[in-house]
Amino acid sequence: MNSRLFAITRKEIIHIWRDKRTLVVMFLIPVIQLFLLGYAATTDIRHLNTAVYDADRTMSSRALIEAYRASDYFDLNHFAANEQDLARWLDHGDVRAAMLIPSGYGDKLARGETAQVAFLLDGSDPTVAGTAYAASQSIGQAQSTQIVQQRLGVDVTALGGIEIRPRVWYNPELKSSNYMIPALIGMILQFLTIMFTAQAIVREREQGTIEQLVVTPIHSWELIVGKLVPYVAIAFFSLAEILVIGTIWFGVPIRGSIPLLLLTSFLFLLTTLGLGLLISTIAKSQQEAILLTLIINLPGIFLSGFLFPLEAMPPFLQFLSFFIPLRYMLVILRAIVLKGVGLEAIFTPTVALAIFGFLLLIGASMRFRKRLE
């Protein structure tokens, strides 16, 4: 590092250090986002408030209720005196599911007939309803198998037929935190680097100090690199924060290579730093830089596969997602952290990140250099 580049980098580090509030925000944002999204952005539905109306009141109906109570999907905490109670609780949001056992349920089972039970679900939240729907069917089928086995006096699983034994790889417990925490690395890195890079350079322009830098003997590339280096260091510190907390607190396993993860993260940082630099050439104030940062980050969150699966999107949005660098970073992060793959398995998204990073950083640097001149 030559003396001029070192001087610019030192100047930016001093400025960051003196701005204590911004410094605290830089280090706290990743931790706060990790805890909030690590717990809030989950699809694991447990302990759903559930109401029961048992119109049969027999040993058979009580056995069915106990089967649902034994699972951790449903909390049977509302017992209705009539069907109207179920409707009222569902309307008011007091419960998200309701089970209605009709009169004669036990008699039908005793006669060897099929007894039907209504299971009502609040579909206002499709994610919750979908999980509850699958869980209600699974518990019901298990209870049905047990009843048939008791009636026949034989093990029904020994009667032949087809038995499906699913095996889940990489995330056998299907914990959503294992899926979300690696993705948070990419999202937080993007958010931090774009926002603070854009503001840092716009701040120089607002304070009028950038003109003083222009008249010094430093080259344009030295000014750009010197301004960006501290934020690269902060980004990697944030990366370490997320990995440590994700592993220790949330129990997310890191099965892949840490050096490979750092290398691909650096390629991703080239894209985010390029975007931040590009914003700095467009924005005329820090408020405008923040607004542009949000405008760029929001499509990245929705179209990258962070919250919603890309396969479920319309073809046009899937096409647009190919222009979102975060999409490739999420594929890489989940592959390295959860699958433990090597470079050969993530070669295509890695090359895509390198291309995006090169084009964005070079293009933004050229535009920034032109603004300086």
Characteristics:
373 residues, mainly alpha, abc type-2 transporter like fold, 2 domains, 14 helices, elongated
Task: Give a topology summary.
Blueprint: H1 3-18, H2 20-40, E1 48-54, H3 59-70, E2 74-79, H4 83-92, E3 97-101, H5 105-110, E4 118-121, H6 126-152, H7 176-207, H8 209-214, H9 220-248, H10 258-282, H11 286-303, H12 315-321, H13 325-339, H14 347-372
Parallel strand pairs: 1-2, 1-3
Antiparallel strand pairs: 3-4
- What's the helix count? 14
Q: Give the structural class.
A: mainly alpha
Report the principal-axis shape.
elongated
Helix content: 55-70%
- The CA-CA distance between the termini, in Å, is 24 Å
Give your account of this protein's structure:
This protein has 373 residues and is mostly helical. The chain has two domains: 3-41 and 175-372, no CATH class; 48-158, 3-Layer(aba) Sandwich (abc type-2 transporter like fold), CATH 3.40.1710. 67% of the residues lie in helices and 6% in strands. The chain is built from 14 helices and four strands. The chain has helices at 3-18, 20-40, 59-70, 83-92, 105-110, 126-152, 176-207, 209-214, 220-248, 258-282, 286-303, 315-321, 325-339, 347-372, and strands at residues 48-54, 74-79, 97-101, 118-121. Strands 2-1-3-4 form a four-stranded mixed beta sheet, with helices on both faces. The chain is elongated and about 95 Å long. The relative contact order is 0.11. The model is unreliable at 159-164 (pLDDT under 50).
